[in-house]
Amino acid sequence: MRDGPLTGLRVIDASTILAGPLCCQILGDFGADVIKIEHPVAGDSMRGHGHAKDGVPLWWKEISRNKRTVGLKLSAPEGADLLLRLAATADVLVENFRPGTLERWGIGPEQLHEVNPGLVLVRISGFGQQGPYAHRPGFGTLAEAMSGFAHLTGAPDGPPTLPAFGLADSICGIAASSAAMVALWARERNGGKGQVVDLSLLEPIMMAVGPGPTVYDQLGVIQQRHGNRSSNNAPRNTYRTRDGDWVAVSTSAQTIAERVLRLVGHPEVVDEPWFASGRDRAQHADLLDDLVGGWIAERTRDEVMRAFEEAGAAVAPVYSARDIVADEHVRATGMVVEVPDPDLGDMLMHNVLWRMSDTPGRIRFTGRPRGPTPTIFSSTSSAARPRPSPNCVPGRSWPDGRPTNLRIAVTTTSTTTTGTSPSTGTASLLAAVRAGVRTYDLGRRLTIGMPQSPNHPPFWHALPRRHGDMVRPDGGSAANDIITMGTHVGTHIDAFAHVSQDGQLLDGSDAGAAGRGGRFAELGAHTIAPMVRRGVLLDVPAALGRPDGCAPGYEITPEDLTAAVERQGTPVQPGDVVLVRSGWGRLFDHEDRTRFVGHASGVPGVGAAGATWLADQGAHAVGADTIAFECLRPGAGHSSLPAHRVLLVERGVYIIETMALEELAADGVHEFLFVLSPLAIFGATGSPVRPLAVVAGA
Questions:
Q1: Considering the entire predicted model, what is its pTM?
Q2: Architecture, CATH, for domain 487-696
Q3: Out of 3.40.1190.20, 3.40.50.10540, 3.40.50.970, 3.30.710.10, which CATH number does the structure's domain 10-212+337-371 have?
Q4: Residue range 333-371, pLDDT digits in tens
Q5: Chain centroid, CA 262 distance in Å
Q6: Residue 310, Cβ density class (10 Å: 0-12 exposed, 13-18 middle, ≥19 buried)
Q7: CA distances (Å), 411 to each of 66, 75, 365, 393, in order?
Q8: Least packed by Cβ within 10 Å: which of 81, 144, 458, 466?
Q9: Mapping DSSP to helix (H, G, I), strand (E, B) and coil, where does residue 473 land?
Q10: What is the gyration radius of the CA atoms in the chain, in angstroms?
């Protein structure tokens, strides 16, 4: 079976909710090879949108059909490098990051067109790439409000009304598919040169709402809400039938309006002078609604439908999803079709958007599980930017089919081997343990009154049952505990859901919407995989010659971190966990618990520049011996957290705080096996942890 007119076209879908994925769905439906890029840890936000069956997201099955998937962390240098290599083989790339994000990651239009001058880059954003609002958070709801849609929707005496679905996104997604094809047609006519398509969510729905700006410009008229009525014609409304169903009537054409009034038994109204135009009929909507609505209310829906059809008048039932799938016309014309799915069996979904007589589209497969996550193996210096391995693991759904020098080794676990069999590797690991290892406990003891951030619920522990409260017949007794605490108290790890910036989380999703229901299903603590990784301690005070530790409020810079690397000879490699010692941890057990919190004095730590440096090295997670990881200025507290923004929102790097690093530093241990497992607290923004550093030798 032919795969459609766009067979041979390669599209990279680097977008998320909802316009971009819909655009790419349409292109894929008509044969394009669509490669879906999603975050390797968080996945794509669409996986958590809408209903699920047995944990399988249903909307994802449709919006991501005909798409192969791969996990790439675009904010990391190696992820950006891989995207550039993939873009070199593509025709279209669709993205909807906030303007400036791709440029900040080094994969903006300049870099993309350098590797592929013919690439069409479709950029979807709330308000476009330029203008006063370009950098505002932009979502479909805002476009529906600003376009005039909400102003015109709803009862005349009620509030402006928003749609119950992604209207602005859907209109924009369809427009984006057209824009991509227009740009590809232009490429064919101008020597193969690609271009950037700048498309906002606002403009397509603004056009769909109608000529309101023109009417206001020429007449000074501001259209108002009319409920289900129209200012252009009448009768036009929804009417309830005798059996409790609803139908919609439209009379946009004059002849249809005349047929409706004759059908309902009022031919005399047709002869009224005002009945001759839709605009004048709209001025008599009350009368016409009474006549039509009264007639319909005396009949069942089937009787109304049959009478309107016999009269040649326009009517339609108001359908629910159940009505849609049962409708004979919908079924006969293939508007919805059954598609085989490996998880759910046959499932019903919308067909391709239009029919073509010679080159029809089709649904080749449904939305897939998360794709493989490429892991880079570098044969060069560990400090150099990683390059792909010369080997490619077979059997993965990595894009193929075009000549390219892109070769990627793929793994779906948090650790990687390069050819050692599982049995041999495990034996070697156990032999190393038997030979003797030393374990450093990097976690702080949880005690009542321990120093902590004032922003989180404190730790409390009690024994509701003590020994002797209940004694078993054999003389045994048991005690039990109850604890209360915030998830960011003591040694803990921050999930990506912990911090948002301008209303958005790491994956670009709306932070408020993502947390509805009191939990974060996509970026919560339960999504943090256990870590068994190379760990590196960067002892900044030692590198700066400050045996007493960094000064209060001191910002640890990229130069300081580089100095620590050079002094120790432990370059940071992609995937490492990097622990930054400031020396502040020595105050954790101080009798004055406020000293460690450091609100008045300030606390040393990494700033935005240092956080960017750590992310640029490819760190998987970072940690520190302070309560907030950040540089906190005297008296400022947690009023600004730029390092959290960089790491958690922009670059996707986990943060571990309140660590015990003094023993590691005292023993001169700068490289080790790092082990950490967070509690799988579903939807939480963080988790208490007890991280370990393991080195050889008893």
A1: 0.61
A2: 3-Layer(bba) Sandwich (3.50)
A3: 3.40.50.10540
A4: 999 999 999 999 999 999 999 999 889 999 999 998 876
A5: 54
A6: exposed
A7: 23, 19, 24, 9
A8: 466
A9: coil
A10: 31
